[in-house]
């Protein structure tokens, strides 16, 4: 249609100091289209939305809206100018006035006519305007299934309901182009289905949607086209299935599933030979009782459930790898098990219930945790760092015995016990962090991205150390972006997407097809045609109510 509204950006760029957050990006979305924008954390997705909505002024490039054949240049215009043209932005976190009712929050989005300030005089015309605004807000709330929540304060609504109030406000504003930043983040499964149906309905009724979203299953379901960002640049763009199947996109999202380590050295030195580490066979084909068993784990950031319904079990000497795309909730699972985040569900270690207990109690009873950010005290010696770990553990063995174990696994670290931790290389500090967990005498060690920042040449020796740790009877749970390392060191794999399990099984079954399923939502259903929703309110779960009131 020639008269439809189209938002387009050409050569859009902005830098924050030396960081080129967005660098020469072209993107276009018209009424009746949904364009997905995907990429890793730090790819520039939210910055792109800031540029399109007017929150950030670009250093270069243009932002243009074509409306009924007229072109409006907006790259230097404030956000309110874009709002008058129907460009509406929704943020990742709810931006409601908590003390106002849901209806009053929606009324804030209804465009004010000229002379709206006269309403304060209480004239008949102003009363009619106020009534019309109230009806528009109530109609929008009914559209998203929240008619019976109109009079409730926004701060008393569940997270899913708050998200729908924001969408109702966008509807009442007369949005023609809707910019959505992670609209499914933190929602329950029921809420996600309702929000997805609403977005599909808006798209089918002619609203243009630019959808920034980590969950590729939703992008596959809703989007006509997709733009893949990487380090601020467009890596690929085009039809959804074709673009997500692009070999370079697959490589960036999944990487190599075999552990092949080489390179990483300067040109003056020969590269070491490529090392292919075979996938380990299960240590014992017979089922054994789990030393760590987690059931129905839900983990929260404030009131937001970032992980929902995760089960896992690992036996002594086994390895479990947790994999998935950025934002899947992998590290959050480890922090929930370790007691570092508010969580519900059961956590059992060697049969003892640990859920509801503090992190130090869990450490004393055999749980070890190695965070992604290194925790060594650089001004203390290696031995002093290890003694701190021993003091925090069960002390079932003497410090000398614990040091002997460290020497067996990490002889390089034990040989530098008198050196300051700050003098170690990055790889040695990572081994020190694991050694600190080991001297506490754990039954299970949780490792969060243990190879992050390591030179590629160090990954194969690190994989060998984890394999020897398992052979020593310690269960290992690894969150790791390097799928080759996971396959080389773990007996089972759990795949997460959007905070929920989507794949699990023995390592030998985790092939390229399984990786596509976990990382690229390759088995997601194709986009459907018009799908008007049946409005139904999203009730807060007891857990959501508990956390909203705390």
UniProtKB/TrEMBL annotation:
PROSITE patterns with a match to the protein in the record: ABC_TRANSPORTER_1 (PS00211), ABC_TRANSPORTER_2 (PS50893)
| Annotated GO biological process | L-amino acid transport
Which UniProt key words apply to this protein?
Amino-acid transport, ATP-binding, Nucleotide-binding, Transport
Chain intervals for the UniProt region annotation (Disordered): 525-550
Could you tell me the superkingdom of the organism this chain comes from? Answer: Bacteria
A single GO molecular-function term is:
ATP hydrolysis activity
For this chain, the family text in UniProt reads: Belongs to the ABC transporter superfamily.
Instruction: Tell me the protein's name.
Output: Branched-chain amino acid ABC transporter ATPase
Query: What lineage does UniProt assign to this protein's organism?
Result: Bacteria, Bacillati, Actinomycetota, Actinomycetes, Pseudonocardiales
